[in-house]
Amino acid sequence: MGAAEEITNRIENVESVAEALFDEWEAELKECSNDNLRRNSTRQLRSTQKKYQRLITTMRSAEKTIDPVLSNLQGNALYLKHNLNARAIASLKSELGKVNRDISYMIDACSVQLPNRIPLSMK
Length: 123
Fold this sequence. Notes:
With 123 residues, the chain is mainly α. The protein has helices spanning 3-31, 35-82, 86-117. The protein has one domain (3-117). Helices cover 89% and strands 0% of the residues. The longest helix has 48 residues, at 35-82. 4% of the residues are buried.
């Protein structure tokens, strides 16, 4: 399994677990006999669902950046494989900045945006 597929699977697992937890929370709200506690818990559920939605949206956005970055890296690897010489390596130096920017963007999307969107209870 490739890195992109693994990340997609992990995001899908997060979605599956979150859906089950939210369904369970909804069902348990019906069992709460105290109106005040039920209202508070319902507000907390809605707030958590909104935070989760922002988190999953950010994760899916970051996921979309993976394939272009990996494709670019694969193209560079193939180029090196078939043209491994001093000129080929020198010509890739200009591509290094682009690759570094792509990787930095992907890392930023995963490590800067996500921690700000993860609810405290999920950290």
